[in-house]
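User: I'm writing a tutorial on reading structure tokens. Could you give me a worked example: one chain, its sequence, then its tokens, then a sentence or two explaining what the tokens reveal?
Assistant: Sure. Here is the example chain.
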Amino acid sequence: MDKIRVGILGCGYIGAYHARAVLASEHAQLVAVVDENVEKRSDFVTKFQVPRWFSSFEDLLESKSVDAVVIALPNRFHGPYTLKALAQGVHVLVEKPMAFTAIEAAAMVEAADCNKLVLQVGHMWRFDPEVRYVADLISSGRLGKVFKTKGYGIHTNWGPAGWFTKKALAGGGSLVDMGIHAVDTTRFLLGDPLPVRVYAEVGTYVKYFDVDDTATVLITWDNGVHSLIESGWWQPHMDGPEAGGGVYGTQGYASLFPTRSSFFQNGTEQIEDPAFPPRIDHCGQAMYSLQMEEFLRAILEHGTPRPSAADGLVAMKILDAAYESARTGQAVQIR
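And here are its predicted structure tokens:
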């Protein structure tokens, strides 16, 4: 395989991040896009000089013109379109959340395994250098035994519109859109433990949506750590930006965005404030490009990407459990 032929489904804001990532790679070429919206598709094709376009995913698959696709469409299409692509021998990078439910996500994992194809989920914060700094700090043991974390996925005085706020297309609200970033980032920081119990309070308080605009989730992991996750749209305040948070250990504390750590030694606090380049955009292009490189590497090496489809499934199990807990008022055990 000379260069991996990539097609992008969805010519929106996130689709553009993926397009730039493909164009920046020496291992891939952007050969096609799919979008029913003629105006958006035309602008996207012109901006990124895409040689072919299609109005339907079925037409793209029938053309046999791609080796891999990026699915950047409303959540309702993530599962069905991933399964269609895998059935046709096409590798998939699917945006988060990978599916509507954990049951659907499990079917996607099985299909990828059975067809020996790469299925990666777009949890791009794993590729951020500041996130990796904190993950390395934890794994080094310098914080001691970690016992608690906090994570955030919140928009203040703002929130998305369109399909994001429609349950039939999104499946959920701020928890699905923003909270999942904090969930997966927290899990990555901790070395990818498995969840054993979830308790959540989820509601719609600020706007008139049929999905949640506020959620508080408590996760207990199989390593004994418990994690508080807050998500929201249109909130009056946030304690940290998207995927930000804090890690509490027996020998120190680390925060993420702003990223620094502190340790108590001989009765005094020692601060480490590592120098990272200024963040022009909080959600920058670089982590999407690194994510794409991981996807392409897995295809070329016939390997398993990280985050894998299995990682995406774990996140879906947590979301399902959170909504069930909010509905029943009880903690939910995850097997």
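What the tokens reveal: The mean pLDDT is 96. The CA atoms of residues 74 and 281 lie 23 Å apart.
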